[in-house]
C-alpha cells in the first residue's frame, strides 16, 4: 500500500520530529554559535509563562466559543426549516450550502471589503441606517475576532445544516404523529422529539466544528496577521510564526504538541460519548 | 388546519427561505457584480443597494488586467496541477487502502485500522513545520510534487473508504475471486463502479481542500513560480494600494471551477452528506 509510505514520510515522521524537537532548542536555520541540545521541558515552561502564547490559547478557545454554539443553534433551526416537502426547497438548500464552495481566502477578502472601517463600508452604512456610528471592525481589537467568527459561521452553516438534516431524516415520523395526538405544540415537539433525536448528530457537529475552529489560520493570515495587538493571534498562527518566521523550531514544536494534545482530548471525549450510544 | 391558514403558512415559509437565500448568496453575487465595475464605481456604490446591482459603466477591464498584468493563468495553472495530482492520487491511493482494510483479510489488519483512526486525530497544522523540513530534505520545496504529495495520504479519507467497503457485501468479492479475478482487478472493475457516491464526495472535498489551502503553499513555495491562487490573491489584497476591481475579478475566476465541480457532483455529494448521518 503506497499510501502507507506517504503517510509515514509526511505525517508520522514530522509528528515524531515535533515531539523530539519540542525538548530541544533547535532552530530552523542553524546559527554557527548555537548548538542544538536537549533542554528538557524549558520550551513547555516558556509556553506556560509567555503571555503571547497564553493569549493565543485564550483567543482560540474564545473563537470556538463564538462559532460552535452559533453553528449548532442556527444550523438546527435552518435544518428544521428546510426539512419540508415544499416545492423548490432543494434549491434553497443548495443556495444555503453555496458559501461552502467559495474558497476561504475569497470569503475573507469579500468580508474585509464589507467591513471596511470608514463610513462607506457596506456594513457601516447599513448600521448607520439605525443610527449606529461606524465601527472599526477588523481593526478594533475587541471586534476583530468576532468578525472572523461571523465569516466562518456564514461559510459553514449550510454544510452543517445538511449534516443535521441527515440526522433529522432518521427521526421517525410516527413520533411526531403520536405527539400531535397527545396535543403537543410545535415547540414541545421540537424540545421533546427533535433535540433528543439529534443528540448524536449534534455531538458530531459540535466536535468537528470545535476542532475546525481551533485550527483557525487562513482568515487571520489573510486579514489581520494576528493583530490588532495580538487579539486575533491563534495557536496555529502562533506556531507558524514561531517556527517559520522566527525560526524557533523547538518552541514551535512544543506548541504543536500542546495543540495536538488539546485536539486529542476533544476527539477522545467525542468517542466516549458516541460509544455510550 | 384550515386551507387559508395553510396557505399563509406556506407563504411565510417561502418568505423566510428567500430572506435567508439573500443572506447566503448576496456576498457571492456581489463578487461577480463588482468584478465588472471600475474601482471608483465600486467605492461609490459601496454604501447603498447599488453595490449588488449591475449599475453604472460595466466592462471586462478588470479581467483583462488580471489576465495580462497579474498573470492570473499562471497561478491558475499551478493550482490546477496541484489539485489534479492531489485529487487523483488521494482518491485512488486512499481508496485502495480503504478497500484493503475494509474487504480483504490479512495479518496485522486490526493494528493498521487502529493506526489509521489514531492518525486521523493528528491535525495537519500540528506537524506542518516539521513536514516542511522533511519536504526540504527531500529537495521537493518549490515543486508541484512538494505542494501536492505530502497531503495525499490522508487518514480521514482512508477511514471514510474503509467504512464504505466494510459495509459492502463480501459475496461480491468472493464470487469474483472464484471466477479467477485478482484482488486489484476486482478493485478496478467492480468496486470502483459501485463506489460512486463516496468517490464523488472525496473528489469534491479534496478539490475544495487543495484549491483553498493557504498554509501549506505558504511554506512550500519560495517564489512566484509555483505560487497557487490563494497565495496570489493574498498578495494582491496586501498590496499598498488595493485594486478592488481586480481582486473581485480574480476571486470570480477563482471560485468558478469549484462552483462547476460542485454543480456537476452536487447530487451525489448532498445525498452522501445527508445519508451519512453522524458519520459525516
Mean of residue pLDDT values of chain A = 85
Helix content of chain A: over 70%
**What's the mean pLDDT score of chain B?**
85
Number of helices of chain B: 14
SSE class of chain B:
mainly alpha
3D architecture notes:
The complex is a heterodimer of chains A (277) and B (280). With 277 residues, chain A is mostly helical. Chain A has 13 helices and no strands. Chain A has a single domain, classed as Orthogonal Bundle (MetI-like fold). Chain B has 280 residues and is an all-alpha fold. Chain B has a single domain (71-279), classed as MetI-like (MetI-like fold), CATH 1.10.3720.10. Chain B contains 14 helices and no strands. Chain B has helices at residues 3-34, 39-45, 61-68, 72-103, 109-119, 124-137, 144-148, 155-166, 170-178, 183-191, 196-212, 215-220, 229-237, 244-275. In chain B, helix 11 (196-212) packs antiparallel against helix 14. Chain B is globular. The relative contact order of chain B is 0.13. The model of chain B has no long low-confidence stretch (mean pLDDT 85). Classes of the chains: A mainly alpha (277), B mainly alpha (280). Chains A and B meet through helix 1, helix 3, helix 4, helix 5 and helix 6 of A and helix 1, helix 4, helix 6, helix 11 and helix 12 of B.
Amino acid at each position: 500500500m503506497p499510501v502507507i509510505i506517504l503517510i509515514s514520510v509526511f505525517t508520522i515522521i514530522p509528528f515524531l520530529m515535533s515531539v523530539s524537537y519540542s525538548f530541544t532548542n533547535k532552530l530552523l536555520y542553524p546559527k554557527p554559535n548555537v548548538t542544538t541540545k536537549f533542554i528538557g521541558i524549558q520550551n513547555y515552561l516558556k509556553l506556560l509563562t509567555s503571555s503571547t502564547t497564553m493569549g493565543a490559547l485564550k483567543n482560540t478557545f474564545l473563537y470556538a466559543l463564538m462559532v460552535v454554539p452559533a453553528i449548532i443553534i442556527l444550523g438546527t433551526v435552518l435544518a428544521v426549516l428546510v426539512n419540508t416537502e415544499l416545492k423548490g426547497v432543494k434549491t434553497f438548500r443548495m443556495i444555503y450550502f453555496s458559501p461552502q464552495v467559495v474558497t476561504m481566502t475569497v470569503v475573507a477578502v469579500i468580508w474585509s471589503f464589507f467591513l471596511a472601517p470608514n463610513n462607506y463600508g457596506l456594513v457601516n452604512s447599513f448600521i448607520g441606517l439605525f443610527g449606529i456610528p461606524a465601527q472599526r471592525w477588523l481593526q478594533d481589537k475587541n471586534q476583530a475576532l468576532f468578525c472572523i467568527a461571523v465569516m466562518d459561521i456564514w461559510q459553514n452553516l449550510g454544510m452543517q445544516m445538511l449534516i443535521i438534516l441527515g440526522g433529522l431524516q432518521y427521526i421517525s415520523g410516527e413520533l411526531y404523529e403520536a405527539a400531535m395526538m397527545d396535543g403537543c405544540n410545535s415547540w414541545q415537539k421540537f424540545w421533546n422529539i427533535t433535540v433528543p433525536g439529534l443528540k448524536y448528530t449534534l455531538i458530531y457537529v459540535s466536535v468537528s466544528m470545535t476542532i475546525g475552529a481551533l485550527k483557525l489560520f487562513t482568515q487571520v493570515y489573510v486579514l489581520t496577521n494576528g493583530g490588532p495587538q495580538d487579539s486575533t493571534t491563534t495557536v496555529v498562527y502562533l506556531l507558524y510564526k514561531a517556527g517559520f518566521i522566527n525560526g524557533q523550531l523547538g518552541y514551535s514544536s512544543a506548541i504543536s504538541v500542546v495543540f495536538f494534545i488539546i485536539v486529542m482530548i476533544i476527539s477522545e471525549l467525542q468517542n466516549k460519548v458516541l460509544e455510550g450510544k | 388546519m384550515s386551507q387559508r391558514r395553510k396557505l399563509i403558512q406556506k407563504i411565510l415559509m417561502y418568505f423566510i427561505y428567500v430572506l435567508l437565500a439573500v443572506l447566503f448568496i448576496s456576498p457571492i453575487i456581489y463578487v461577480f457584480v463588482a468584478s465588472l465595475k471600475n474601482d471608483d464605481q465600486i467605492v461609490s456604490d459601496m454604501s447603498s443597494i447599488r453595490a449588488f446591482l449591475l449599475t453604472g459603466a460595466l466592462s471586462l477591464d478588470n479581467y483583462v488586467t488580471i489576465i495580462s498584468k497579474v498573470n492570473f493563468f499562471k497561478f491558475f495553472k499551478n493550482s490546477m496541477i496541484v489539485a489534479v495530482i492531489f485529487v487523483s492520487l488521494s482518491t485512488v491511493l486512499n481508496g485502495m487502502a480503504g478497500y484493503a482494510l475494509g474487504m480483504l483479510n490479512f495479518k496485522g489488519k486490526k493494528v493498521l485500522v487502529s493506526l489509521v483512526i489514531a492518525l486521523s486525530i493528528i491535525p495537519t497544522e500540528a506537524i506542518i513545520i516539521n513536514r516542511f523540513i522533511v519536504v526540504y530534505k527531500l529537495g521537493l520545496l518549490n515543486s508541484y510534487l512538494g505542494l501536492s504529495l505530502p497531503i495525499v495520504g490522508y487518514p480521514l479519507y482512508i477511514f471514510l473508504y474503509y467504512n464504505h467497503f466494510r459495509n459492502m457485501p463480501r459475496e461480491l468479492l468472493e464470487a469474483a475471486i472464484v471466477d479467477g479475478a485478482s484482488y486489484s482487478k476486482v478493485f478496478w472493475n467492480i468496486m470502483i463502479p459501485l463506489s460512486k457516491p463516496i468517490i464523488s464526495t472525496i473528489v469534491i472535498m479534496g478539490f475544495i481542500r487543495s484549491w483553498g489551502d493557504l498554509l501549506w503553499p505558504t511554506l512550500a513555495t519560495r517564489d512566484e513560480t509555483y505560487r497557487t491562487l490563494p497565495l496570489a490573491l493574498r498578495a494582491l489584497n496586501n498590496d499598498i494600494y488595493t485594486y478592488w476591481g481586480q481582486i473581485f475579478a480574480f476571486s470570480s475566476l477563482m471560485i468558478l471551477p469549484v462552483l462547476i465541480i460542485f454543480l456537476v457532483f452536487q447530487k451525489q455529494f448532498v445525498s452522501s452528506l445527508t445519508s451519512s448521518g453522524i458519520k459525516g
